[in-house]
Write a structure and sequence with these properties.
The protein has about 130 residues and is mostly beta strands. The chain contains two helices and ten strands, in the order βααβββββββββ. This is Fatty acid-binding protein, intestinal.
């Protein structure tokens, strides 16, 4: 699968505005903009394992396509939702546990980079990763 491998954050687009809309305070937003996030993704059939390491934490996230699971963002925001494969895109549809608002995410490979796009309450942000 094209997502397999280790991906290191390279740059962000509109990430601060996205985090602000999510309710992340200014200090955490400034820190998150320089979190040195690294994702190691492996896929076995419909099962994905994502090893996430950053300045803030290191966790393993295991999910199966189409199966609802719970996930906690680095700032503590709790989400519940699913990832699915739509063509060559991983599409995440999540709801915040605290307020029921939708948070959608798409991971896709564009020009050798993994582009992760988030949309929350009308605000879109991108995090772009390069393969290590």
């Amino acid at each position: 699968m094209a997502f397999d491998g280790t991906w290191k954050i390279d740059r962000n687009e509109n990430y601060d505005k996205f985090m602000e809309k999510m309710g992340v305070n200014v200090v955490k937003r400034k820190l998150a903009a320089h979190d040195n996030l690294k994702l190691t993704i492996t896929q076995e059939g419909n099962k994905f394992t994502v090893k996430e390491s950053s300045t803030f934490r290191s966790i393993d996230i295991v999910f199966e396509l189409g199966v609802t699971f719970n996930y906690s963002l680095a700032d503590g925001t709790e989400l519940s939702g699913t990832w699915s494969l739509e063509g060559n895109k991983l599409v995440g549809k999540f709801k915040r546990v605290d307020n029921g608002c939708d948070l959608n995410a798409v991971r896709e490979i564009i020009g050798g980079e993994m582009v992760q796009t988030y949309v929350y309450e009308g605000v879109e942000a991108k995090r772009i990763f390069k393969k290590e």
